[in-house]
Amino acid sequence: MKEFLRSIGLFLLDTIEIITTAFAIFVVIFLFVAQFHEVNGNSMLPNFHNHEYVLTDKLTYRFRGPQRGEIVIFKAPPRPRDEYIKRLIGLPGEKIAIENNKVIIYNDGHPEGFVLDEYYLEDGIVTKGKSAIPPNTIVPIPEGHYLVFGDNREDSSDSRHWGPVKKELVVGRAVMRIWPPTAWSIVKHASYEE
Asked: Could you state, in order of their start, the residue ranges of all structural domains in the chain?
């Protein structure tokens, strides 16, 4: 009987150890490597839909900065408890303007400015200036900050409304759609060579 109870005790200890180890690994992954996020709202249509879930890579930005065109998840400046998903448009130290419904980027490589090719937007989508980036006004982006816009510009609360996002508020970049199963796919980020 003692041997039987000892076996049960060892089995329970092993089970607790496995569960504790698995939980610790999950916590480390959740805090430092990857996390699931739900898309809330229509600001990223047609590329992301309301109630889709994405897997967020939290590791890449520890080794390099976010890049223009990437889909990022960040703590929203107007509501820091919420996390938004948007497309990264402007980089630290650049200047931006919205003229004739187009985004103009000014940087060291293009001091005269260039029109951002937003091929990922649906036909007919126009970009209008808002309170933080008024139309036909060149606005500087502070160091350590990024500008993010929704792909569905008319239905997006973004940097045009509330300004730049601090680097430390950027959680990571979307890498995969995981829910619903019919939407499963690798996230395609816009790529720019400047």
From this structure: 35-186
